[in-house]
Structure to design on (157 residues):
């Protein structure tokens, strides 16, 4: 693996760390603005879990995770278009609670796909487990948010 490929993966993992920080801010802000006590508790819980995700990613970087990916060229990495999962979905201050939940569900689904893709690209079992765990946790977040959405916005279904 070339240094350029390693650097590309370092940029992706760094962007994932940034997205985890943004998710923390997003959930903290949504919890503080939440009119529903149950929603606020879940959102604060999710914010706390994003802090743990950030730490796991930082630890993986320190342990050389970027040297364990199986791509051999930058073109090969770019073809995978992993950055598509890390796009920022902006919210306006006027966003409704429904908008907030929809964006949160999309963010968790994207994070799940991103971590799944990274788990399939690493040749190192320890790092694969880290990414698989992150993918599963993001999927749990998505499910919890979808359940909350259904309870609040589709109670009759």
């Amino acid at each position: 693996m070339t240094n350029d490929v390693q650097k590309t993966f370092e940029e992706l993992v760094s962007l994932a760390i940034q997205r985890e920080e943004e998710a923390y801010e997003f959930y903290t802000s949504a919890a503080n603005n939440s009119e529903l006590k149950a929603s606020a508790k879940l959102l604060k819980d999710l914010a706390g879990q994003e802090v743990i995700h950030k730490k796991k990613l930082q630890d993986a970087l320190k342990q050389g995770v970027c040297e364990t990916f199986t791509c051999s060229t930058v073109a090969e990495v770019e073809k995978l278009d992993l950055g598509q999962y890390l796009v920022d979905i902006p919210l306006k201050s006027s966003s409704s609670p429904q908008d907030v939940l929809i964006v949160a569900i999309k963010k968790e689904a994207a994070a799940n796909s991103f971590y799944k893709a990274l788990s399939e690209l690493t040749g190192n079992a320890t790092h694969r487990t880290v990414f698989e765990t992150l993918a599963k946790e993001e999927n749990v977040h998505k499910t919890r948010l979808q359940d909350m959405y259904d309870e609040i916005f589709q109670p009759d279904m």
User: Anything to note?
Assistant: The chain has one domain: 3-153. The first helix runs from residue 3 to 32.
